[in-house]
Amino acid sequence: MSHYILGIESSCDDTSAAVIKDNVILSNIIANQKVHENYGGVVPELASRAHQQNIIPVIDQAIDRANIKKKDIHAVAFTRGPGLLGSLLVGVSFAKAFALSMGIPIVEIDHLEAHILAHFIQNRDKNLSVPAFPFLCLTVSGGHTQIVKVRDYFQMEIIGQTIDDAAGEAFDKAAKIMSLPYPGGPVIDKMAKQGDAGAFHFPKPSMPRYNYSFSGLKTSILYFLRDELKKDPDFIEKNKNNLAASIQKAIIDILMEKLVKASDETGIKEIAIAGGVSANSGFREAVFDLQASKQWNIYLPKLEYSTDNAAMIAIAGYYKYLKKDLAGQEVTPYARSSAAKK
Predict the structure, then answer these.
(1) Tens digits of per-residue pLDDT, 301-311?
(2) How many Cα atoms within 13 Å fall on the side-chain side of residue 263?
(3) Which of the residues 70, 93, 164, 231 has the least number of beta carbons within 10 Å of its own beta carbon?
């Protein structure tokens, strides 16, 4: 018997709904919020209001695109956290109300676990290769940077993580320092393609084991540009492509050094990449550059499953539903958590 799971994602500023039939995605609808561009970052109150406006149309579209009826849905999976509490409340409340009205169960999903499990989403037209257990997953986004050892769908252990800023935040903060539009990560990626990554050099942090730190890099970029602008007020404009390429290389080098170390010391060659930064073209290129020399089997989600989306919530919900790991109506969202349990 097939199972249809409705997934709802509302952890930050994207409202998304998806329908999955077993592990095959039928629809994945995402409504973006442009209002935050004027503020150079996500404004929590505005985000939650936009979720309230978007959630019903997005869910209607997801069900319609999947070509099913509401009565066909077996369970509702939703992001419980981590994320912005106001945004999460909208998704959690709607999921509980929808499920209660339909007499079906709800499944709570950790946002970071879902990013990892996005690698198991299948398409209707062809089967996609998936990681074999155990595998290492580098989860890199605007809010999180972690190396996770994945033994099974819900047996995960964080073996390395950032002690301060996330890699995605470093991209966005660097872009803001350079007065580039928000979100800055994709802008830096685009400009870096036209620049020389060796034009400028920024220091790497010295961190134990597989942990990361990006606050020092961010500070060094700030001070470097401050000093150069004193000499030439047009320094950034004259060197913006080279700066973008050099900053991107510094961030990617930090990420890859720890991932290589983790793979070498654990002996795991199955390597998955997840999170919004996995959409960065330079990062993807760096991962594949190591494929042959390290004998890695590399798994990257489709671009539409890299950033926040409900398809990853739905696939995680499907596997939890099979285990009968269901939530109760008393469930509440959380802002911070650890996706992986030891």
Answers:
(1) 888 899 899 99
(2) 23
(3) 231
The two tokens of residue 40 are: 């150079």
Decide: 340 and 156 in contact? Cβ < 8 Å.
yes
Find the helix or strand (DSSP H, E) in which 85 lies: helix 85-102
Q: How far is CA 178 from CA 153, 191, 258, 341, in A?
A: 41, 12, 27, 38
Enumerate the H helices of 135-280 as residue ranges: 167-177, 184-192, 215-231, 235-266
Q: What is the mean pLDDT of residues 259-287?
A: 95
Q: Tokens 């074999």 correspond to what residue?
A: 132
* Structure-block tokens of residue 145: 């940077």
**All structural domains of the chain:** 4-121+305-322 (3.30.420.40), 135-300 (3.30.420.40)
Q: Which two tokens stand for residue 261?
A: 């170390």
Strand 75-81 versus strand 106-110 pairing type? parallel
Distance from C-alpha of 191 to C-alpha of 286, rounded to nearest angstrom: 17
Would you state the structure tokens that stand for residue 143, as one six-digit string? 């809010």
Distance, CA of 74 to CA of 107 (rounded, Å): 11
Angle at 32 between CA 79 and CA 318, to 5 degrees: 30
Segment holding 50, helix H or strand E: helix 44-65
Under 8 Å between Cβ of 96 and 125 = no
3-class secondary structure, 106 = strand
Burial per residue of 96-113, b for 16 or more beta-carbon CB atoms within 10 angstroms, e otherwise: bebbeeeebbbbbbbbbb
Provide mean pLDDT across the span 153-174: 94
Q: What is the pTM of this model?
A: 0.92
